[in-house]
Amino acid sequence: MTQIARKWRPSMSLVVALVCASLLAVPIVATLALQIGTNRLVNETEASLIKQAAIYAGAYVVAIEAGSPEAEGSLPGYYLPPSKRIFWSAASRTFRPLLNLRQDVVEPVRPDPVPTTERLDPRYLRIAPGLSALADNASRTTLSTVVFLDHQGIDLLAREPASFAAVPEVRQALQGDVGAALRWRSDAGTRFRLAALGGGTGFRVLIAYPVISQNRVIGAVYLSRTAPGLTEYFAGERIAFSVLVAVTLLSAAVVGTLLVRTMLRPIRALRHQSRAVAGGGHFELAPLGHYGMREIAELGEAVITMAGTLSRRSKEIGIYTNHVTHELKSPVTSIMGAAELLEDGHLSNEAQHSLIGTIKAQGQRMDLLLHQLRDMTRSRESLRGKPGRIREMLPEIAELDISLAPLDAVLPLSVAHGQTVLSHMAQNARHHGATRLELVWAGRILRLSDNGTGFADIDLGRLAEPFFTTRREEGGTGLGLAIVVAILDLYGARLTPVANIGGAVFEIAFD
After folding, report:
1. How far apart are CA 328 and CA 365, in angstroms?
2. Whole-prediction pTM value?
3. Residue 407 and residue 389: Cα distance in Å, rounded?
4. What one-character-per-residue DSSP string does 71-124 give?
5. Is-cis flag, bond preceding 406, omega within 30?
6. 465-506, pLDDT tens digit by residue?
């Protein structure tokens, strides 16, 4: 037996499990998407801090320039090159996102300011209290931490002079650029990176914004704030998130139930039926109580039809085998007996001629039987043809007059098949002594009536059975009507003998 190549094919149970797992993965994928969205929250925090820093820097400049430059001397600080002067003197300034959580490395915790021997300029000491009050009032709303630095990076509000000049983002701001960094809030973030990044609250966004007056960087505003995390997002959207989880779980359950009911169970039942067919148990097949989907129902009907066909073929093969064996046994026995007698050689010429005639007759009977069996096999394997006119199908049988009404009738059989059917029907009528055969086409029924001896009522139910014949002594094989039935089966037609006093009457009904 040829075996199917062993290739990996997922089972229906695995497919159902994968579908349900895919549905259950929706919240996980959504969470991952929100984690990726944390980067957007970082950018929003960055943009907010830059706007705050611009306001603080504006207040810083106004406070510095409110003093008397003539008395205090020119302003200190880094003098901007032409390219930077153009940018900072423009009517409006636009800043592109400086931070990218998916690409930038989260830096260590912000370092503490370094003590310094440098001293603040008196002008910075004068404006420090006002800036401190501004920061205290604004931070209650902005929730950000602000540090004001002079041109050296010294904290204006520190009790003892301390400098942030060594911090990279501050150093960048003191050179006339906006500095930005992502830093861990504490050392715990460096140890639990995945959890901290997943929550989005393990790090802070830091912005160092230059304070520019008279084309000099006279100081910097150093702000920091923790970006909104997923916990805050879920806290505000917990009802929507709970609904999402509930709907996803419900959808997974519904889809899983539908897949099991409409696909898994029917296909398993069809698999059992197919195995029953393969094991020879197809005689007991019955339609399933539930097929699930239309396609599976069609598959189930095809399996039952296949089982029925196999059942009929199996029965027919058994019947044909038994009958062919029986039908061939008699002529073979006669031929062998005649051959044995001829071998003795003590027979008269008349007896020898008689035995030779017996051998020829039985050989012809065997040839006729095999020829009709071949015709029946071909009839079952042939294809349906286009309808043809009945008058083109009528056979010519000696001493049998065939009439047709109406003359232009069209039969739902091909001309070739129609010729075979009507030839067998006409020969059957002639063998039973008929001299006249009438064909009448009405609606979807062809009625054939002859004036022969007809059939006994007891034989009507067996006339179409293979090998059943009422004239076995005359050489009948019982395959003529069986061939007719085999051809009519191709067209969904039925041959029915009708009880009649006198000749035989048959009706061929087409669906």
Report:
1. 9
2. 0.46
3. 9
4. HH-SPPSEEPPHHHHHHHTSS---------TTTSPPBPSPPPPEE-S----HHH
5. yes
6. 555 565 555 555 556 677 788 788 888 888 888 888 888 899
